[in-house]
Design goal:
The strands form 5 sheets. A 5-stranded mixed β-barrel has the order 13-14-15-17-16. It has a 4-stranded parallel sheet with strand order 1-2-3-4, with helices on both faces. It is an alpha/beta fold and 416 residues long. It is globular and about 60 Å long. 32% of the residues lie in helices and 21% in strands. 37% of the residues are buried. Bound molecules: S-adenosyl-L-homocysteine and iron/sulfur cluster (SF4). S-adenosyl-L-homocysteine binds next to strand 11.
């Protein structure tokens, strides 16, 4: 959206109160981010009173979900851009500036094509390889607000990655709700591991990551690709959601904990140094103490480097909306904080295991006060701060000897 606005003669404002257009790009996967949108719109309404020419737009999943309602009543955005309508921004911006109020939220049934555009300043960049989701997990709004699964052609993806690498990007993260179903609806015959093989050949690219893999489709051929391709990092986000088979069934996740554990064990054997991460939902309808204990046991058994855990919230239109949201807010919060406490211990143990080892860090920035301090991430996506007498710039790869494990990062010194 930034690139489209720049093509139309706009430039980024330094401060929010200098802006002529403000677009809130939204997420509706949980109730909390959605509520934030409403409160931000309230604050912007006050800004519009002081500056009537200011135009406020809402994009993303909340836009797709609320559509015209965002133009009405108390909220009163000036324009709404759905999840499949980013391209239309260039066409609507003039009428919007002239005072028209526009809502564009149609979801296209055609294939997925995204123009290649320039990103600013980071050695690390995202590339969308697919959009939408056909899995219909019972709690999840994504299939409703982002439509059916659509993949981008491999040529278009490769063109974008080559363009980004030519402009200085060293690390690419491929994006999709379930990258393992990449290619299903394309005319060309290609699957996700094959796409990884093609991207791995791009000269000048240093690292390749991807999110998210659905456990039910996490395949042996993907494990092989991760083992064999030098640029694919030893990091796998494989959201378990719950350790209880009863809850997994009610979530419509289509795997049991046993099946999940078996795949993870195989992946750990095939890919040395593999770091895992996961999402968890606590307090799903009817989650008993025993179900919750199953989740804690899974957490301890798998040993994730990172987790993202959330209290369950009801999402409109999903099949779980019909289930009673039976776990109280207090119990959800208690369960969440105990889970996060246990995870802190696991993370500390895994971080300690890096001490004394040499890791490859891609530099992302340098210390603001000390020119000899740098910061970046290792291949397992862990933040590493290090000291060096040499000068490095973002995108450089440096061998760092880890000296200390801190709560959220590692500290070390460069070996080069
Ligand atoms: N496609 C990814 C997840 C995308 S949504 C996958 O299948 O793993 C990101 C995360 O939000 C989910 O993994 C889930 O943990 C969380 N989430 C989704 N719906 C939720 C809800 N109704 N309440 C709480 N958390 C939810
Ligand atoms: Fe939502 Fe499930 Fe699709 Fe992930 S796989 S986006 S959780 S429906």
């Amino acid at each position: 959206m930034g690139a489209i606005l720049q093509e139309n003669g706009f430039s980024p404002a330094e401060q929010i109160d200098e802006a002529d257009i403000i677009i809130i790009n939204t997420c509706s996967v949980r109730e909390k981010p959605q509520n934030k949108v409403t409160s931000l719109l309230g604050r912007l309404k006050n800004m519009k009173i002081l500056k009537p020419q200011l135009k406020v737009g809402v994009a993303g999943c909340v836009a797709q979900q609320m559509e015209n309602d965002l133009l009405k009543g108390n909220v009163r955005a000036d324009f709404v851009i759905g999840t499949d309508n980013i391209d239309s921004l260039g066409d609507i911006i003039d009428p919007v500036m002239r005072g028209e109020r526009i809502c564009q939220t149609s979801i296209s049934k055609d294939g997925l094509s995204i123009p290649v555009f320039k990103r600013v300043g980071s050695p690390s960049s995202f590339t969308t390889i697919m959009k939408g989701c056909d899995n219909f997990c019972s709690y999840c709004i994504v299939p409703y607000v982002r439509g059916r699964e659509k993949s981008r052609s491999s040529d278009e993806i490769l063109d974008e990655i080559k363009f980004l690498v030519d402009s200085g990007v060293k690390e690419i993260t491929l994006l999709g709700q379930n990258v393992n179903s990449y290619g299903k609806n394309l005319e060309e015959i290609i699957d996700f591991p094959q796409l990884l093989y093609r991207i791995n050949d791009v000269e000048g690219l240093g690292r390749l990551r991807f999110i998210t893999s659905h456990p039910k489709d996490f395949s042996y051929s993907l494990m092989e690709a991760m083992r064999d391709l030098d640029k694919v990092c030893e990091y796998l986000h494989l959201p378990l959601q719950s350790g209880s088979d009863r809850i997994l069934k009610a979530m419509n996740r289509k795997y049991s904990y046993g099946e999940y554990r078996e795949k993870v064990q195989m992946a750990k054997e095939m890919i040395p140094e593999l770091a895992l991460s996961s999402d968890f939902i606590v307090g799903f309808p009817d989650e008993s103490d025993e179900d919750y204990e199953d989740t804690l046991n899974a957490l301890k058994e798998i040993e994730y480097e990172t987790i993202f855990a959330f209290n369950y919230s009801v999402r409109p239109g999903t099949s779980a909306e019909k289930f009673e949201d039976s776990v109280s807010k207090e119990i959800k919060s208690k369960r969440l904080s105990r889970l996060l406490d246990i995870q802190r211990g696991i993370m500390a143990k895994l971080s300690d295991a890096y001490v004394g080892k040499t890791v490859e860090v891609m530099v992302e920035g340098s210390g603001k006060r000390d020119e000899k301090q740098f910061s970046g991430r290792n291949r397992q996506n862990k933040v590493v701060n290090f000291d060096s007498d040499k000068q490095y710039k973002p995108g450089d790869f440096v061998k760092v000897k880890v000296k200390e494990a801190k709560p959220n990062s590692l500290y070390g010194v460069s070996e080069d």
